[in-house]
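Ticket #4471: structure export looks truncated?
Reporter: QA, pipeline team
Priority: medium

Steps to reproduce: submit the single chain below to the structure queue and open the exported record.
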Amino acid sequence: MGWGDFRPAVRHVAASPFLKWAGGKGQVVESLKPFLAPLGPQNAYFEPFLGGGAVYFSLRPTRAVLSDINRPLITAFQEVKDDLPRLLGELGELPPPASQRDYYERREEFNDYLGQKHAWGRKVRLRVAALLIWLNHTCFNGLYRVNKSGAFNVPMGSYRNPRIFSADKLRADSEVLNSSAARISVGDFEGALSGAAPGDLVYLDPPYQPLTETARFTSYAKEGFGIDEQRRLSDVVHRLVGRGVRIVLSNSETEFVRGLYSDLRADVVMAPRAINCIGSKRASVAELVVTA
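Actual output as written to the record:
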């Protein structure tokens, strides 16, 4: 089948993000590794802005606490970890869109689930996870963006024959998630980090502070992540540092962000930006890496 792959797992397939994610660290993870010193066997790795999980899949820690405020994203990670065979079956029923109507019908179905405030049951969880993966590989630039009502509103992308998923990659990812006994949950970063202990490592990749007033291309959650949230994150970081937790944080290289962490070490790495609709304008930009 052109849209799926049900062959037995291939051993040389390495774990890597099964989702495209704006701001994902797949292309800069090697630049980040010098800041991410190895963990001791009793220490845990925390990532409360999980996104595609590129840093997690690269590090493969022995203990991990993974979280994000994005409910369908976390549902997808949970299903990859806990019920991959059934998820693969669900994905197998979702071929690439044959028309715009196909895409927008699936998007509407996804938004119907997003509008449900109660807990999702077994079948709904599988369906939401499959729909997220499907939309991620068929929408414009793989973006995740919601409107003020919380509805996913990214238009259809221009792909001739998108590959929705790789069963081999999903199996490799599931193996890593299970080998680290990953605890995966939906939640705000502050609550997710309440259990971090001295010696644990926290990697923070929040929604970046915009470089300009017109640079905010997306709303990751309907609540947004503005200046007040950046300040709250800084307060949490400083509390964690005060109790001996190791911190690595990525953000925009701006005067505002530097000011929030002026007492901590700050380095600059160059990272590609791949969300501009004009390919020639997808240049590398400076990003700040704060460590303590």
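Status: closed, not a bug. The export was complete when the record was re-opened. Leaving a note from the reviewer for reference: Confidence is low (pLDDT under 50) at residues 1-10.
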